[in-house]
Amino acid sequence: QVQLVESGGGSVQAGGSLRLSCAASGYTISSVCMGWFRQVPGKEREDVSTIASDGYTTYANSVKGRFTISTDTAQNTLYLQMNSLKPEDTAMYYCAARRSGACHRFSWAFAYWGQGTQVSVSS
Q: Residue 108, SS3?
């Protein structure tokens, strides 16, 4: 059974940092594409960052240079280091996994999802 459990969200002031974690079970994260998405009420879920099985990473333009996606294969955990946070980064953040190693930026391409962790950034 595939399971994704996010943690690390919270409330910070603008300019602060948070590190999100996504602990995976039921499969090996290094063999599939993993991604972080975020959603605010009333808006569509948007891609933040993805990492393919070959290590290739992508970032949304809005987070480039501030966020870093990474994996720890020993812990089978996905991370998202978020620096220089802005109020517009406030959202529910979700970890997701595809069934293949190739990545895709659209949420419908991901088969497995975590329950989400809230990030709130105040000005």
A: helix
